[in-house]
Write a structure and sequence with these properties.
Helix content of chain A: 25-40%
Number of strands of chain B: 24
Largest interface: A-B, 77 and 77 residues
Oligomer: heterodimer
Shape of chain A: flat
Strand order of the largest sheet of chain A: 11-12-13-14-15-16
Number of helices of chain A: 12
Order of helices and strands of chain A: HHEEHEHEHHHHHEHEEHEHEEEEEEEE
Strand content of chain A: 25-35%
Radius of gyration of chain B: 34 Å
Structural class of chain A: alpha+beta
Number of strands of chain A: 16
Number of domains of chain A: 3
Strand content of chain B: 5-15%
Radius of gyration of chain A: 37 Å
Largest sheet of chain B: 7 strands, mixed
Shape of chain B: globular
Number of helices of chain B: 43
Structural class of chain B: alpha/beta
Chain lengths: 463, 1081
């Protein structure tokens, strides 16, 4: 059933997008936690609702097989997860029992065959086609297969797609423990973290600085192998009295430059309160980004790097809010065509300004200022205008550039007509008239209320 | 001040322009612009519409095109004469053909080659660089008059820009041309232009940046405003008129471009047609001389045709039909001109128009400007042969498929606009979901509220308003189902041709309305499943009963056939088999052929919306007096409507009658009525119909008709707007309905076989057709490897009622290919004794044999489905080595015997449904009857014993769910159980309360009230329950794992002691058990 069909059936259906990646991550997390029961824990990507534990030789630690199951069940239920558990002599049997038999169960090798028999053939993890075939032949349970001569089955279930050669027999063998099933246990994720333990608590800055330098060297070596660069770095100082101090720094672009990173850390080092001293220092690369090695002598990259390093230093020193850049935003409205962003935001390009756009002033007034203007109706440029109580005579003018309000933003704005003006003194203004004069037989949109007469403003200055 | 606007992009520059050509033309005329040229981007798709509108409003129109070249240059091209126009269309064809669908790849070299006779205008991209040099170079390469376009865009430096353009133009000796660079007719449309730009680039409006327009200046401006803007360059304005004067070509010159092929060299088309018609009419009256009345009418028709010069048209259609006849392909013409004596004589149609009183004038007359309309239906399986014949005869350069213009509809418009406006996917889904069916025009406020939104919300309101405006905008061109354009001159010199989405198919850029408007010959080569069915039936009757029938020679007015229809016994009969038709038949009780014509036409949105059905039935049954509304005696003869409505008891039922009323009673002029018809038939999105409403109702009431009657008439016209259904079509369809009903009545086994062999078609699935046949005493035999062919066949059965039994064909088996079946038939010189025998003799792939085994086709070999399957599974595909080819001996050793559990009957039935979509063994519900008895559900067959108004409960498989647009939310459900079929009506409120059950149940229990009227029985549903999971029991009851090997006790415990847990019991598993219902919205 598609979502659209479901909606027709239940119009007020609540819909949530599937988050298979998050689910997978959570399952991984759960599997990692389950490592407490056995180091051999696995999450099969093709089998999204199970986690596999090979507890051979581990159960005695928890008081036997039954007790292990109970322990797992109780701990999971305590955090709101209802598990469906089965412990059997092999993976296939455990899978079948956990998926097709309600309740947790621990089965001995002797009982196994008997308990598996009534289960439907789908418990064998067969492909759909084989399953349908079996059911058509009346072979609906695993037990009905046990009784058939092996050769007969082999002949009839060679498996059409070549790769599933005797898939059925293989599954049967697996579930009866006649053959092994490969198992790929979870590998722990690498954590980019280095630490140094001190036998004597350190409390003096030079000592700490030396330790940082050493730790940073180790960390960068690790990251270089993984071709990663640091975007966020955390330094944790564990104090003898149990307190933890931390310093977090961020970078504009991924970096593996130990000098640069150290400098950033040192900027903030005085924030650390060592008191009775640290007995452990830990350095974590908390956010990393891919940073492949760069060809030597790339001058442009070098320049970029020095600017961004400067920004990093200023940001560390003055705080992230203090450093702002003007960023271009594509919009016809002059005041919306740029915005301040923090230095750590991405992309500062001004390349997207269209080539045909006429000149924009160097300075834009935050708020356009109302002026008195003498101009020719309907579209003539100003001849004379009064701004801040000074009368100015226009010697040169160009325009109008007509910019209509952004209709999807409701602000009751009117169309503006911008003029570039040079006055007698040589000052160059950017003026605009808000609103249009009616023209004979020219219809306008309802937004342009022609009854109110247009008003004039100064909006900016050219060099 | 005079001015012509020569740079205009309409919404046929797909997702660029924001006005219809018509709006642009009308506005230009109102502003006093001298002429307009539509310069859409690499296309002429909108040009006919603009031409027609300009013609209507008295504006000069210049066909032209904007050529956007691959090198980035843009040129406007204005052809000055017919030859140049032909070059332009050829140029565009070349560009279209070398690019993928919807694109046009042109280089300057191409333009050079076709430049002769054109005037070009360069659209400067930038004023930076050596523009003058560029102009000089272009002028030399194109060797045609060249202009430089200049427009005033309010971009800030327009004056400088104009001056630089003028300077460059002067340096190169190229004149300057003032243009408006128009994108829309009114400034208000700027918003829509922004929206379509965002749709095009998949952007959200608030992130679109410079994609949206800076201002609204690209609208049509009055000449005096243009004069003001170009005050310094008056010659640039004058040049617009110079070009206008130079371009004397009009699209009207493309008229009557008929192919000459069908006419012998020494004869004129008219003479040839007259000879043919007069000779062939005799063949229609084999029993005696041709009646005088007929001859006179024919004479008259030929005379009209002569005056209108339509002879080549009739001859072309005749030629195509003749081809089909020679090949034994059944076909029938319909459409206005098809119901003429000429077509009857030529064998294009089998409906004798005189018998049915269809008057030629109603369809073709001097007043109508359009060419006659003949659609020809062919057997759906063999239409391709006809198409290939046409291509072969006229060549691909002179025959092409017409386009269909895909426009935005409410649902798609809301979706796309909503996406641009940044509404969430959920919101859009819910909004679009409120439009049921895709023909909706706009979404009313109540519906918005129903969906849980606030219609006053600004963003939502804007979205809805804009979506409403976008409805009707062309989106892209697609391929018409079968509209063929035939021309005398090469087609690419008439209209650009482009690639279709289908490989190796090409489509012209115009749709049928455009072609009609230009009087270009168009023949609709359509496909019809029923014709395939009829031809197959006639073939079978010939071979099994030795009778030769054709549609024309079937016994006429057969009362047995009509009596059958009175019982609504019409499963499989063309057109009158739907539930709605079936419920009408016992009321209407057709007695003569014309009644069938009415029957076919009456269950349509037009008559239903016009409230014409009930009055007609009342009058027909004599419950109401037949009278004819009259005008005030001052204005007209009191019987003026009797002429029009005499045949239909005074109730207008057909499109033509509505037209006649407009003329006779509402005082429309014939051409106005024509316009009215056109506005309802085609450009339905333009909303032009409302302007006629006033005139129509006003016209009638002022002449003394009752307002209520005139409103009903007009409502009916509006109903036609969505599904025009003229009498001429109804007559052609009624002919097929009669023919198929006759077959069903007299040769039910043949009819069922032919229907099954023509699937997919019609309203019912094979299961219902087979069931129906069995109910008519036809013995139906199962598919079997030793008896069945690919098609269903007849087997002699002399003692039975019909003399033959129906053997189901292998085509019904899912997954078996026709070539496998043919190989099997070929190898069947002696019966196959078992599975392995079949395998060695047919050498079919094992997978195909397995399909046959799964469908239980080996019964004649003494094995059932399960055993056959077990045997098949042991087979191995052997390579086709010469050594083994004749090795029919068995070489494998003996296997240990295996006792498989026997398959219970219920499971066989389920498997039959899965592999054949039907079962001859039993009905699935017969196994569940016990359970239904317990809840008091009665078999459908028992409904007959119940009285009107009784409370009843029934259960059945859902065959059909229908929600007709005309029934204001009512849903009709057809249920089937082992005893019969019943119909239920679900009112809107009941539907809302039981929505999930109604919409997804395969097995439905309905509790409700029985309603019986005129022999039609319905259940008015009150409560419903989805019982689909019951179907699972069919295969589960048979599931007896206990019998295998002594695990009995354990298995029992499993089944009884524990809750069901993932043992295939999920409702979604029901899906495979019975075929899906057919749902119609």
């Amino acid at each position: 059933m598609t979502l659209a069909e479901a909606r027709m059936v239940l119009p007020d259906l609540q819909v949530e997008a599937a988050t298979s990646d998050i689910d997978a991550a959570k399952r991984q997390e759960l599997a990692r936690w389950l490592v407490r029961y056995t180091p051999l824990t696995a999450c099969d990507a093709n089998d999204t609702d199970s986690i596999l534990l090979d507890v051979t030789g581990c159960t005695h630690l928890f008081g036997g097989e039954k007790a292990t199951l109970t322990d797992i069940q109780q701990r999971l239920e305590a955090v709101g997860i209802t598990p469906q558990l089965a412990l059997a002599e092999n993976r296939a049997a455990a899978w079948a029992l956990s998926h097709f038999r309600p309740g947790s169960i621990s089965v001995s090798a002797v009982e196994s065959k008997q308990l598996l028999s009534p289960l439907p053939v789908s418990a064998l993890r067969l492909d759909k086609a084989t399953e349908v075939k079996l059911v058509r032949l009346g072979l609906k349970t695993i037990g009905s297969l046990f009784s058939l001569p092996r050769s007969t089955l082999a002949q009839r279930f060679r498996g059409q797609p070549k790769k599933q050669v005797t898939a059925l027999l293989e599954r049967l063998d697996q579930i009866l423990g006649r053959s092994d099933e490969p198992f790929s246990p979870l590998v722990p994720v690498p954590s980019w973290s280095v630490r140094q333990v001190f036998s004597e608590p350190v409390m003096h800055l030079p000592m700490i600085e030396m330790a940082i330098q050493k730790l940073l060297g180790q960390l960068i070596e690790m990251l270089a192998k993984a071709q990663l660069g640091i975007r966020r770095l955390g330094l944790y100082g564990f104090r003898v009295d149990g307190g933890v101090q931390q310093i977090i720094i961020g970078t504009n672009r991924p970096s593996r430059d130990s000098k640069h990173l150290q400098r950033l850390l040192l900027e903030k080092l005085d924030q650390l309160e060592a008191e009775f001293g640290f007995d452990l220092l830990q350095l974590n690369a908390e956010e990393t980004e891919s940073l492949p090695p760069v060809q030597c002598g790339d001058i442009k990259a070098k320049q970029h790097q020095s600017v961004s390093e400067l920004l990093d230093r200023l940001t560390v020193r003055l705080g992230p809010a203090a450093i702002r850049c003007l960023q271009h935003r594509p919009s016809h409205m002059p005041e919306r065509a740029q915005a301040f962003v923090t230095a750590h935001a991405k992309s500062l390009g001004w390349d997207s300004v269209p080539a045909h756009q006429s000149l924009r002033p160097l300075r834009l007034l935050t708020r356009p200022e109302l002026i008195d203007v003498l101009a020719e109706i309907p579209e003539g440029a100003p001849r004379r205008f009064r701004w801040r109580r000074v009368e100015r005579r226009v010697v040169k003018a160009d325009g109008p550039e007509r910019i209509a309000p952004e209709w999807w933003v409701d602000e009751g704005d009117k169309t503006r007509n911008y003029y570039r003006i040079e006055t007698e003194g040589g000052t160059r203004f950017w003026l605009f008239r808000s609103g249009l004069y009616p023209l004979p037989r020219v219809q306008r949109t309802s937004m342009e209320d022609s009854s109110a007469s247009p008003t004039w403003y100064v909006h900016g200055f050219f060099a | 001040m005079e001015y012509a606007e020569l740079q205009v992009s309409s919404n046929f520059s797909f997702l660029r322009g924001a006005s219809h050509p018509k709006e642009l033309v009308i506005t230009a005329k109102a502003l006093g612009i001298k002429a307009i040229a539509l310069t859409d981007r690499n296309t002429l798709a909108g040009t006919v519409r603009a031409h027609v509108a300009a013609d209507q409003h008295g504006l000069d129109y210049i066909p032209a095109c904007r050529l956007d070249l691959m090198c980035g240059r843009s040129l406007l091209a204005y052809p000055t004469d017919r030859a140049a126009y032909g070059r332009l269309t050829e140029l565009l064809t070349i560009g279209n053909r070398r690019a993928e669908k919807g694109q046009c790849h042109l280089a300057l070299e191409d333009v050079e080659a076709f430049a002769k006779g054109h005037i070009f205008t360069l659209l400067p991209q930038t004023i930076v660089g050596d523009l003058a040099g560029e102009l000089l170079q272009l002028k030399e390469r194109l060797a045609a008059p060249l202009y430089l376009a200049a427009s005033y865009g309010y971009q800030g430096e327009d004056k400088t820009r104009l001056a630089m353009l003028a300077h460059a133009a002067a340096c190169a000796g190229v004149p300057l041309l003032a243009t408006g660079n128009i994108l829309f007719h009114h400034p208000e449309r700027r918003i829509l232009a922004d929206i379509v730009a965002c749709i095009r680039e998949h952007q959200r409006i608030d992130e679109a940046g410079y994609l949206v327009s800076a201002n609204e200046e690209r609208f049509l401006k009055p000449p005096e405003e243009m004069a003001r803007l170009f005050a310094d360059y008056p010659e640039a304005l004058k040049n617009t008129l110079v070009i206008k004067e130079a371009c004397q070509f009009s699209l009207d010159e493309l008229r009557y471009n008929y192919p000459h092929e069908p006419v012998p060299d020494n004869l004129s088309p008219q003479a040839h047609l007259e000879n043919l018609a007069q000779e062939m009419i005799k063949g229609r009256f084999e029993d005696g001389p041709v009646p005088e009345e007929i001859l006179q009418t024919l004479e008259h028709e030929l005379d009209v045709v002569k005056r209108k010069d339509y002879a080549p048209y009739f001859l072309t259609v005749y030629d195509i039909v003749n081809f089909a006849r020679r090949k034994g392909i059944l076909c029938q013409g319909r459409g206005s001109a098809a119901n003429s004596l000429i077509c009857f004589a030529l064998g294009i149609t089998d409906v004798n128009p005189v018998e049915v009183k269809l008057l030629f004038e109603r369809f073709v007359s001097d007043a109508r400007k359009e060419p006659p309309d003949i659609d020809v239906d062919f057997e759906h399986e063999r239409r391709e042969e006809v198409i290939q014949y046409i291509y072969g005869k006229y060549g691909r350069h002179r025959a092409g498929l017409a386009a269909t213009l895909i426009t935005y509809r409410a649902r798609s418009a809301v979706r796309e606009v909503g996406k641009v406006m940044g509404l969430s996917e959920d919101t859009l889904g819910a909004l679009a979901g409120t439009v049921w069916g895709s023909y909706g025009r706009s979404i009313p406020d109540e519906q918005v509220k129903e969906a849980g939104f606030n219609p006053a919300d600004r963003c939502l309101r804007q979205t809805l308003d804009l979506a409403h405006e976008l409805v009707g905008f062309p989106r892209h061109l697609s391929q018409h189902v079968g509209g063929f354009v035939l021309t005398e001159t090469p087609l690419h010199e008439v209209v650009p041709i482009q690639n279709a989405a289908m490989k190796d198919r090409t489509v012209i850029e115009w749709n049928k309305d455009d072609l009609d408007a230009l009087n270009i010959l168009k023949v609709d080569v359509l496909s019809l499943g029923m014709l395939t069915c009829l031809r197959k039936a006639f073939d079978m009757i010939r071979s099994h009963y030795g009778m030769a029938y054709t549609i024309h020679t079937l016994p006429k007015e057969d009362m047995d056939t009509y009596h059958m229809t009175w019982k609504a016994d019409t499963i499989g009969v063309f057109q009158i088999e739907s539930r709605a038709q079936m419920s009408m038949l016992p009321r209407l009780r057709p007695k003569v052929f014309y009644d069938l014509v009415v029957q076919v036409a009456i269950v349509r949105p037009g008559p239903i919306q016009g409230n014409m059905v009930h009055p007609y039935l009342q009058r027909r049954q004599g419950k109401e007096r037949i009278d004819f509304p009259s005008p005030d005696s001052r204005f007209g003869h009191k019987d003026e409507l009797k002429e029009v409505l005499g045949q239909t008891c005074g109730v207008p039922l057909f499109q033509e009658q509505a037209m006649r009323i407009a003329i006779v009673a509402a005082g429309f002029k014939p051409n106005e009525a024509d316009e009215l018809r056109r506005s309802m038939a085609s450009f339905r999105n333009h909303g032009t119909i409302h302007k006629f409403e006033e005139k129509f109702i006003g016209g009638m009431t002022s002449r003394g008709y009752e307002r209520e009657f005139s409103e009903r008439c007009f409502n009916q016209i509006k109903g036609f707007a969505d599904y025009g259904f003229p009498e001429s079509h109804a007559a052609a369809f009624a002919m097929l309905a009669y023919a198929s009903a006759w077959l069903k009545c007299h040769y039910p086994s043949v009819f069922a076989a032919a229907l099954l062999n023509s699937q997919p078609m019609g309203f019912y699935a094979p299961a219902q057709i087979v069931r129906d046949a069995r109910e008519h005493d036809v013995e139906v035999r199962a598919v079997d490897v030793n008896h069945s062919n690919w098609d269903c066949t007849l087997e002699q059965l002399p003692d039975s009622r019909w003399g033959t039994a129906l053997r189901l064909g292998i085509r019904l088996v899912k997954g078996v290919r026709e070539d496998s079946s043919k190989a099997l038939e070929a190898a069947r010189l002696r019966p196959f004794v078992d599975v392995e025998d079949l395998h060695t003799r047919t050498r079919l792939p094992v997978s195909q044999i397995e399909k046959l085994a799964e469908a239980d086709c080996f019964r004649s070999c003494g094995v059932d489905r399960r055993q056959a399957l077990w045997q098949v599974r042991s087979l191995v595909d052997t390579p086709d080595l010469p050594l083994f080819e004749h090795a029919e001996t068995r070489c494998r050793g003996k296997e240990p015997a295996v006792a498989l559990p026997t398959m219970p009957l219920s499971e066989h039935v389920v498997n039959d449904y899965q592999t054949l979509r039907l079962s001859l063994k039993a009905h699935p519900l017969s196994f569940l009857r016990h359970g239904f008895d317990k809840i008091g559900a009665i078999p459908h067959a028992c409904l007959g014993e119940k009285k009107n108004g009784d409370r009843v409960t029934v259960a059945g498989l859902v065959l059909v769910r229908q929600r007709p647009g005309t029934a204001s939310g009512v849903i009709f459900i057809t249920l089937e159980d082992e005893t019969g079929v019943s119909n239920a009506v679900v009112w809107k409120q009941v539907f809302e309360d039981n929505r999930a059950a109604v919409m997804k149940a395969r097995l439905l229990v309905i509790e409700g009230k029985l309603q019986r009227e005129d022999g039609v029985t319905h259940i008015i549903a009150k409560r419903m329950k989805d019982a689909s999971t019951e179907l699972l029991r069919l295969s589960k009851d048979g599931e007896q794992p206990a019998e295998v090997d002594g695990f009995k006790a354990e298995a029992d415990k499993m089944n009884n002691g524990l809750p069901p847990y993932r043992s295939g019991g999920h409702p979604r598993n029901v899906k495979g058990l019975v075929p899906k219902s057919r749902d119609f919205h």
